[in-house]
Specification:
- The chain is 81% helix and 0% strand.
- By secondary structure, it is an all-alpha fold.
- The chain has one domain: Amino acid/polyamine transporter I.
- Helix 4 crosses helix 18.
């Protein structure tokens, strides 16, 4: 037991990053991939996780190597406007997607207590809880790290437990690891990649490493930690896709959000499976709920030259704004059936700027000898990083042209 605790103490930033990536959007995209394509796109989950790992590792090494935050370096070398644009676009991304996190915790709570006519109250309840957590914890990073370890463990247990009800077809699973697609998978590809490969979350890995206190002599620990977090993302997303492939593939049932998905699984697999899924959904949504807001607050603060430490007042206040925006939009959506499209469009439009900027800054800075020294990217990492940047740009352009 002591050895396990020692290992857990060495982890942190990677699992925090995993907790923000595995949210309602990731759950819906992985479930739709399994429902509409069976195991066919399982390889894409692995590829997206690989690209996420490459960039999260860059962020971890950058956080250990730099004596300042990435946006402080950008402001000093390239000018404050570029740093401010990066921080503002990241803030808008997190504010837009906070709506989805509110919907996720609301649907999870409904799975346990029912009362759909009062669904609007849950975003308020969870926002208050998150704000209390953020503003009362004496050491916010340590508190977030411990909470995220628990929530990631709950997600793994719940989504793997769902396979007990759905079963697992190992031959089909193995075939799903071989890259293949058809003309109908384009929409699914556009859903899976952005919800598994988050350049903004990978960029914030540098800040988490600094909050952990790791420096150049602990670079190996930071890299291992980041890849453990990515492994958690891959395992959880794959288990969700596999469960949907076994349960929903070939059925006429459809769903457009996590609430409809939870109700569908409850109907097909029974109340016990539905409750387990809702528990996993609640853990995923609430973990993203807190960390997503902190990322938006910290990057906006840093972009404008304010104190971006997790415990700092500017970060807490701006993270609170992210939470309140998501709460208001969710309450409006539940009470009057409006506001959802605007919020998601805001997040998507902001991603067109934030994701390429964060990816490009990470790739360039972590490849420079003057910044990283012997810790700079090798040829293989640069190649894969460039491929990931191309994917981000291509998906963004395709979305903009729709």
């Amino acid at each position: 037991m002591r050895r396990i605790l020692d290992v857990l103490k060495r982890l942190g930033p990677g699992l925090i990053t995993a907790s923000v990536v595995i949210g309602p959007g990731n759950i819906v995209s992985a479930s739709r991939a399994g429902a509409e394509g069976g195991y066919r796109l399982l390889w894409l989950v692995g590829l997206s996780a690989l690209l996420m790992g490459i960039y999260a590792s860059m962020g971890a090494r950058l956080g250990c190597a730099l004596e300042e935050t990435p946006l402080q370096y950008v402001a000093r070398r390239a000018g404050r406007p570029l740093a401010a644009l990066t921080g503002l676009s990241a803030f808008l991304v997190t504010a837009g997607f906070q709506f989805g996190n509110n919907m996720g915790v609301a649907f999870a709570a409904q799975g346990f207590v029912g009362a759909p006519q009062h669904a609007w109250i849950w975003p308020i309840v969870f926002t208050v809880l998150a704000l209390l957590f953020l503003h009362t914890a004496s050491r916010v990073y340590v508190a977030i790290e411990r909470l995220m370890m628990v929530l990631v463990a709950v997600m793994i247990l719940c989504f793997f437990a769902n396979l007990f009800w759905t079963g697992l077809d190992l031959p089909r699973l193995a075939r799903g690891l071989v890259p293949m697609t058809d003309g109908q998978d384009f929409i699914l590809v556009r859903a899976i990649v952005p919800t598994t490969f988050s350049a903004v979350a990978a960029f914030y890995q540098a800040y988490l490493v600094r909050a952990k206190g790791w420096q150049r002599n602990q670079i190996r620990r930071a890299i291992v930690d980041s890849w453990i977090g990515i492994l958690a993302i891959a395992l959880i997303s794959s288990s969700i896709l596999a469960g949907a492939a076994e349960t929903l593939y070939g059925t006429p049932e459809t769903f457009g959000n996590v609430g409809q998905l939870a109700q569908l699984l409850r109907k097909l697999l029974g109340p016990a499976a539905g409750l387990v899924f809702c528990l996993g959904l609640g853990a995923a949504a609430f973990s993203s709920f807190i960390v997503n807001a902190v990322i938006g607050g910290a990057l906006l603060a840093d972009g404008f030259g304010l104190d971006a430490r997790i415990n700092a007042r500017p970060t807490k206040l701006l993270a609170s704004v992210v939470m309140l925006i998501g709460c208001v939009v969710a309450v409006v959506a539940f009470a009057w059936g409006a506001g959802t499209t605007t919020s998601l469009l805001l997040a998507q439009a902001s991603t067109l700027i934030a994701a390429p900027l964060c990816a490009l800054i990470l790739l360039v800075l972590s490849s420079r000898r003057s910044v990283m020294g012997e810790l700079r990217n090798g040829p293989a990492t640069i190649f894969l990083g460039a491929a990931g940047l191309f994917v981000i740009l291509a998906l963004g352009i395709m979305w903009a042209l729709d």
